[in-house]
Every structure is written in structure tokens, then in C-alpha cells.
Amino acid sequence: MRQLDDLEIDPVEDYMAIIRSLNDRIDKIEKEVKEKAEETKEVMLIRSITGFNYFSAMTIYASIGDDDRFPGPKQLCSYFGVVPSTEKSGLKVNHGPITKEGDNYVRRVLIQCAWSHVNNSDSYITEFFERLKRRKGKPIAITAAARKLTVAIYYILERGEKFRPF
């Protein structure tokens, strides 16, 4: 360490310069994403749901891709992996944890948006979450809320209308 003192190098200032440079780059990318999102009607429709920002709405929309790809909301929920697994044996049907099919990153974004939604809005999804939370606990309730958000996303994209909380 004495050798650095002799060279009069301030490592903290060097690291701060790197951080400032990275922050400038991040700000530029965020601005570009926001501009692109504002140009995309479908992304702005998804953003009409409380809890979705530009990045999460773009992530969800990019994952969905072509609007005609999913014939109904059940297929979209299944694609995101927010549906319960099902085991059938004869006449007995057991539902278990979610299937976790599809892109894990997109599902995590959806779950985070669901948390933001239930904490910052008063909607039918929030009421559903509160009812289910008392019976099943927070983890199951938030996953079910994410599934309801996925259904809402399907219908707002299909109809071209903003989210209606009730």
C-alpha cells in the first residue's frame, strides 16, 4: 500500500469516476427505453396498470411478442408460468405450486409488478390479494395476483383499452 501512497493515486476518486461514467451510461439507456416505450401503444396500455414502469411494461410486451400468439388469457398465464400445476389420478385432481414454465426473469418482473400494484393501488386485484392473503399467505396470494394481472394484460392488449381497476 506504501507504493500507492508514493504515486499519489487516490483509488476512491478513481472508483467514483468509474461510477459516474456508468451512471451517465445508465441514464442514457433509460432515456432511450422511455422514448421507445412512449412510442409503443401496447406498452403504454400495460403502463396504465399501477405497478408497471417503462422497463417492466417493455419486458412483458417484448415477451408476449405477436398479439395473436395466445388464443386466450389462460395460455398467456401458462406461458408466464403463473398457473398452478395439476396432477390427476382417476377422478381426483390436485393443484400444486405454480408450473414455473416460461422465462424466469419475466415471471419475476411480473411478481414484482404485482407487489407494487397491491401496495399502491385500490383495485379488484388488490382486494383479491387481501382476501387470499388471509387464507393462503402472502407468497401464494401474490402469485395469484400476478396471474390476475396477466389476464388483465391480455384483455387490455386485445381490446386496446387502458386498465380499469373495477
UniProtKB/TrEMBL annotation:
This is Transposase IS116/IS110/IS902 C-terminal domain-containing protein. Residues 12-39 form a coiled coil. The keyword Coiled coil applies. Residues 45-127 form the Transposase IS116/IS110/IS902 C-terminal domain. PANTHER family: TRANSPOSASE, TRANSPOSASE FOR INSERTION SEQUENCE ELEMENT IS1111A. Signal peptide: none annotated. The lineage of its organism: Archaea, Methanobacteriati, Methanobacteriota, candidate division MSBL1. Pfam families: Transposase_20. GO terms for biological process: DNA transposition. One of its GO terms (molecular function) is transposase activity. Keywords: Coiled coil. It comes from candidate division MSBL1 archaeon SCGC-AAA259E19.
